[in-house]
Design goal:
single chain, alpha/beta, five-stranded mixed beta barrel, five-stranded parallel beta sheet, 14 helices, 48% helix, flat
Length: 446
């Protein structure tokens, strides 16, 4: 047998893998199928794609899967791209996926709806909204350093309420690292603790441009923030997760600044002066009313004749004193009656009387015991005599005295003729002695 022509399993598998890897049609494959055997893992993802007639194993490494914006679900129709190769350890071919998109709906829209549903179930959208301070001293703004958002906010604040200070927390508002940076700047502003209001926002753009404000990390940073948050992301028609979680939503950065500040300073000062006048009039009216009440009280009979204030109370004290004396007398009489009853009971239950009663009871019980013992002894004697008579009537000697005997052979009692043969020696036992006999003839009863 020529052993050299036989391949090992490893050699054949490596050859097939080389074929897969060198095939130009398998270097970039676009597939559509239904997601199967999917379980979300922390690292690499392993699952299958199938249709009505076939199934293929699939792998998506962590670096590629981290770029997928939505969460794949079992049974979901997908569009994927990648390359096909053979896994040597199992000998099975599989597709290594680079990109993944849902079939029929955009991945970003699907991710938006999935996160919206998740956060809504947790109650993040229904939390009590924090009120926006009317007269803020310091306003924190999380946005791009060079964008138009900060310029619009600064212009609006200077025009409406110039005494408020605007502090910029510059952040990246677009790209893969933007969401983490936005969340970090929100936390920074909140930790500083000396701001009245926080504005987050950016200008308009596509859904991809606005996507950092749809990330879960930003939503949770807003929900955790102790400052009231105004969200101004994109245009008026754009709605992000950040808008839904924030305490207020503004259509534009200018509108956000208007929400964060009162009216123009002149209007505010006029409103303050009007409030001062109203406060003065209210206080003056209250003081005048209190003066009239004081005059009325000082002229009342209580202040004119103060003794009348306690006359009724003095009479009531007398009545209560009399009632108290009556109740004390009643309680004393009841206590005396109870004492007399207890003394009578003590006479009835003196120790000597208890001893006499006990002796009488002992004498009665002793007499009953003697009678019971005599009765029991008589019954026992009668029973004994009856048993002796029965025993005598069953005594074998008494029976033999009436003419009965019994036969033994070799020390054994013989009770059947079949136990004997002619010539056997045996003993006849009488009441007054034994007789030795020899069997000469046996007659059987028919």
């Amino acid at each position: 047998m020529d052993r050299d022509k036989y391949l090992t399993v490893s050699q054949l598998t490596k050859y097939l893998k080389l074929k897969f890897d060198r095939d130009p049609y398998l270097q970039k494959v676009y597939l559509t199928g239904e997601l199967s055997n999917f379980r979300l893992r922390r690292g690499h993802q392993y699952f299958s794609l199938k249709d009505d007639n076939a199934v293929i194993d699939a792998v998506m490494f962590r670096s590629q899967f981290s770029k997928v914006k939505f969460t794949p679900e079992e049974g979901m129709k997908l569009f994927v791209s990648g390359h096909v190769s053979l896994y040597e350890r199992s000998g099975r071919y599989q597709i290594y996926i680079d990109t993944m998109e849902p079939d029929g709906v955009g991945s970003l829209y699907l991710a938006f709806e999935q996160l919206k549903k998740k956060l809504s179930a947790e109650g993040l959208f229904n939390r009590p909204k924090k009120p926006i301070p009317t007269f803020p001293q310091r306003i924190a703004v999380v946005t791009s350093l060079n964008g138009a958002v900060i310029r619009d906010i600064n212009t609006t604040v200077r025009r409406r309420y110039p005494i408020a200070q605007v502090v910029l927390f510059p952040t990246v508002v677009q790209g893969d690292k933007a969401a983490a940076d936005i969340a970090r700047q929100i936390e920074r502003a909140d930790e500083m603790g000396n701001f009245d209001t926080l504005i987050i926002g950016r200008g308009g753009g596509s859904i991809e441009d606005l996507w950092p404000f749809n990330e879960e990390v930003v939503a949770r940073a807003i929900a955790k923030c102790q400052l009231p948050v105004i969200s101004s992301v994109g245009h008026e028609t754009d709605t992000t997760i950040a808008d839904l979680v924030a305490d207020r939503r503004a259509a534009t950065p200018t509108a956000a600044a208007e929400l964060a500040t009162p009216q123009r300073l002149d209007d505010t000062l006029m409103a303050i002066q009007d409030l001062q006048r109203r406060l003065y009039n209210i206080m003056k009216s209250q003081i005048d009313f209190d003066k009239k009440q004081l005059t009325k009280l000082t002229q009342s009979y209580i202040f004119q004749q103060p003794t009348r204030l306690y006359e009724n109370y003095a009479q009531k004290v007398d009545q209560l004193t009399q009632r108290l004396a009556q109740l004390q007398q009643q309680q004393l009489t009841a206590a005396q009656n109870q004492l007399t009853q207890l003394q009578n009971k003590m006479v009835a239950y003196t120790p000597q009387r208890q001893i006499d009663q006990g002796k009488s009871a002992v004498d009665q019980l002793t007499a009953r015991l003697k009678n019971a013992m005599q009765t029991s002894s008589q019954q026992t004697a009668q029973q004994l005599q009856a048993l002796v008579k029965q025993l005598h009537s069953l005594d074998p000697l008494k029976i033999m005295e009436r003419g009965y005997t019994y036969v033994t052979k070799d020390g054994q009692v013989v009770n059947q003729a079949a136990q004997l043969t002619p010539g056997d020696q045996m003993l006849l036992h009488f009441a007054d002695g034994d007789v030795a006999v020899t069997i000469t003839e046996i007659k059987e009863k028919k």
